[in-house]
Design brief:
Layout (H helix, E strand, L loop, with lengths): L2 H6 L10 E5 L3 H12 L2 E5 L2 E6 L2 E6 L19 E5 L4 H10 L6 E8 L2 E9 L5 E6 L1 H4 L1
Parallel strand pairs: 1-4, 5-8
Antiparallel strand pairs: 2-3, 3-4, 6-7, 7-8
């Protein structure tokens, strides 16, 4: 069955987010933060960098980058909101942030994600983008 046949039959195939874009103001500061705090692999890309986390990419716009195709209102430094599923307890997420010198802005708080009820902590990247570590109950026990 082709994608068109699946779509016209009312059964859209499951989509998966491949990558999204963040904008950073300082490559060195952001590369260090995302590698230390999120464990990304920092990879060169078109005069800048991209951050690889497992099978997800955070493509970065930043100094010296002039992307050809962007949103009508392109992402600016500090205006992204990103949530990452933390694979351990929320206490472990908080301890990790503390050991990296990153302040928890809010949490732990009850939240809801794609898989259901969860607990989250919120913190910021060096430009002020809001980041979240989310833990689902199955990860905690």
């Amino acid at each position: 069955m082709t994608l068109l046949q699946k779509h016209t039959s009312g059964k859209m195939p499951a989509l998966r987010l491949d990558h999204c874009v963040i904008h950073v103001s300082d490559w060195g500061r952001s590369n260090d933060f995302y590698a230390r705090v999120l464990g990304v692999e920092v990879l060169p890309r078109q005069g800048g960098y991209t951050y690889k986390i497992g099978d997800i990419l955070l493509n970065c716009h930043g100094p010296g980058i002039s992307p050809i195709l962007v949103a009508r209102k392109p992402v600016e430094p500090g205006n992204s909101d990103l949530c990452f599923e933390w694979p351990d307890t929320i206490e472990a997420a908080i301890a990790h942030l503390e050991s990296a010198g990153v302040a928890v802005e809010r949490g732990p708080v009850a939240t809801r994600g794609a898989k259901g009820d969860a607990t989250s902590v919120y913190f910021r990247d060096p430009d002020g983008s809001l980041l979240e570590f989310m833990v689902y109950p199955t990860a905690a026990g």
